[in-house]
Amino acid sequence: NAGVTQTPKFRVLKTGQSMTLLCAQDMNHEYMYWYRQDPGMGLRLIHYSVGEGTTAKGEVPDGYNVSRLKKQNFLLGLESAAPSQTSVYFCASSSQPSTGENMNTEAFFGQGTRLTVV
Amino acid sequence: ILNVEQSPQSLHVQEGDSTNFTCSFPSSNFYALHWYRWETAKSPEALFVMTLNGDEKKKGRISATLNTKEGYSYLYIKGSQPEDSATYLCAFLGNRDDKIIFGKGTRLHILP
Q1: pLDDT digits (tens, 9 = 90+) for A80-99
Q2: Distance (Å, rounded) from C-alpha B79 to C-alpha B1?
Q3: Phi, psi of B107 (to 5 degrees)
Q4: Strands A73-78 and A87-94
Q5: Beta bridge partners of A14
Q6: Which of A35, A43, A46 to mutate to test the interface with B (most CBs of B within 10 A)?
Q7: B22 Cβ partners below 8 Å, 6+ apart?
Q8: Over the stretch B48-67, which tens digit does the pLDDT of each residue have?
Q9: Which of A39, A76, A112, B94 is least buried, going by the fewest C-beta atoms within 10 A?
């Protein structure tokens, strides 16, 4: 199993450019998340999805859009990149038990994408 | 707004010493509590998933306890080693249909 795969691993953008980060998981997880990691700030939730076709805002959604057209993929878009969006981005996925029998609710993370906006 | 608090933010421990740190979470509507280990330049990886009040889990020199009635969990590391240096995250799942909420982490530095 590949688990959670993020592409690309590194990217440098100029201010105002757009880009899309792709997150793919092969564990049939319902929930997917996008976080950003900045020094001293821990993980901050940007957007998340509880299933195919659904998305919701997290703690720091401004400047980002997301889509979950297929269950295995969660895309994070930056329409007009700003230097404040320089960060390391992590995608994660998890399963949410519906009957209480499956207690394996932990999140699995991708390897991260280091984005620099100049 | 549900809050998950971890303390301390940062901790320096001498190699060989034991240490522990805390995760506080809302005591109502509990479903699960996770602990993750996050090494520099890597991704967080789950250490423990805890679901029952009074749970105690162990993995080598690392163990964790859970008190859902008062809303806290402790992570213990016995005989710290340099490879234990990492950020330890806890995460709260308050409802089986809710999203995971992460704390800010405790950054552990092991001094040789």
Answers
A1: 999 999 999 999 999 876 55
A2: 37
A3: -90, 115
A4: unpaired
A5: none
A6: A43
A7: B6, B7, B72, B73, B74
A8: 999 999 999 999 999 999 99
A9: A39
